[in-house]
């Protein structure tokens, strides 16, 4: 099976002075051959963030892309119908934003989970964790098929003091995992029987048996060791993650400018999407047909990295994502 070329389309400046260009990504040396489909990478929002762009969530109800700028303390909402990008500012790092079924948005703010009313700017604190652990804060999070919130924490500069939590529909908080470095990507299979999870510092993607009715994870298995993947720098780490309708996972590789599609059955990479910035952070499927991949990145644009902090849109991948789950708790704004 031969590799197919891809086309990266970028505005104004950057790769090949903004002209369309064709490249052949490197083939993974230690795993089965990668199949690279034809796709197109576009800059959707240049200079979208200047800190760490993260947590993309496609809101199918409003046809909008939600994302955060962690260290500028901003939650963003980009309207696909109007092209308008608005934001709400907090006073602490924000790391996830997910619609609440009954209105408003679930947002992580420092060590807190809050319910934000975008129209009024008011928010209500729902929960707080790790009050006595200095340096910790929430990081990535997603809702499971039942509408529970899963969100993990990270520690800095002393790693492995983080945990993974589940917030149930009644608002109660439960700790599921401990000794986590940087809690990151989450995804569930269509049948709700498997949960995938990333802890970034060990560079591992894990799989758990999942009891969707109870929200319980068991039987942790190592799915992918990023150290075995052909990346240019051993310091690169897996970051955010999403899943498509074929139950294949898509993982952003922070520091290597890639999103890689893996086959969970074998742990092998299938497709590698390359970006004109090194700091890709997370990804989600969106658009009317859920066949567009939206990718966030970190950093402030510079001469050496002009697309740092941009939000990218990838089309022509030949796959679709699932509608993102929202929080189903009994909350009203």
TrEMBL record:
The keyword Coiled coil does not apply. Keywords: Calcium, Cytoplasm, Hydrolase, Metal-binding. It is an enzyme of class 3 (hydrolase). It is found in: Cytoplasm. Its EC number is 3.1.1.17. InterPro entries: 6-blade_b-propeller_TolB-like (IPR011042), Regucalcin (IPR008367), SGL (IPR013658), SMP-30 (IPR005511). Its cofactor is Mn(2+); Zn(2+); Ca(2+); Mg(2+). Residues 52-298 form the SMP-30/Gluconolactonase/LRE-like region domain. The keyword Hydrolase applies. Signal peptide: none annotated. Gene3D superfamilies: TolB, C-terminal domain (2.120.10.30). Transmembrane segments: none annotated. Residues 1-28 are annotated as: Disordered. It catalyses: D-glucono-1,5-lactone + H2O = D-gluconate + H(+). Belongs to the SMP-30/CGR1 family. This is Regucalcin. It comes from Tegillarca granosa (Malaysian cockle). The lineage of its organism: Eukaryota, Metazoa, Spiralia, Lophotrochozoa, Mollusca.
């Amino acid at each position: 099976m031969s590799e197919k070329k891809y086309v990266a389309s970028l505005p104004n400046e950057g790769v090949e002075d903004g002209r369309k260009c064709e490249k052949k990504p490197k083939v993974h040396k230690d795993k089965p051959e990668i199949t690279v489909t034809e796709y197109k990478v576009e800059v959707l929002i240049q200079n979208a963030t200047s800190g760490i762009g993260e947590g993309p969530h496609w809101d199918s109800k409003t046809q909008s892309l939600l994302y955060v700028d962690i260290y500028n303390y901003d939650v963003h909402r980009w309207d696909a119908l109007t092209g308008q990008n608005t934001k709400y500012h907090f006073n602490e790092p924000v790391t996830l934003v997910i619609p609440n079924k009954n209105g408003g948005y679930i947002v992580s703010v420092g060590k807190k989970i809050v319910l934000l009313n975008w129209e009024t700017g008011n928010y209500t604190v729902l929960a707080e964790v790790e009050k006595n652990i200095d340096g910790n804060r929430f990081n990535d999070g997603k809702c499971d098929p039942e509408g529970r919130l899963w969100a993990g924490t990270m520690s800095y500069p002393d790693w492995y003091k983080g945990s993974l939590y589940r917030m149930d529909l009644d608002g109660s908080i439960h700790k599921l995992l401990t000794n986590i470095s940087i809690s990151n990507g989450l995804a569930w299979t269509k049948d709700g029987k498997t949960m995938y999870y990333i802890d970034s510092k060990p560079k591992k993607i894990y799989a758990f048996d999942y009891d969707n009715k109870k929200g319980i994870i068991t039987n942790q298995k190592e799915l992918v060791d990023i150290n075995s993947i052909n990346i240019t720098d051993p310091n690169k780490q897996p970051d955010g993650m999403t899943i498509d309708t074929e139950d294949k996972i898509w993982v952003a590789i922070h520091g290597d400018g890639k999103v890689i599609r893996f086959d969970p059955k074998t742990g092998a990479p299938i497709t590698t999407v390359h970006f004109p910035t090194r700091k890709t952070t997370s990804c989600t499927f969106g658009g009317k047909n859920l066949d567009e991949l939206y990718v966030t990145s970190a950093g402030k644009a510079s001469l050496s990295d002009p697309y740092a902090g941009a939000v990218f849109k990838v089309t022509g991948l030949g796959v679709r994502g699932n509608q993102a789950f929202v929080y189903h708790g009994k909350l009203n704004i």
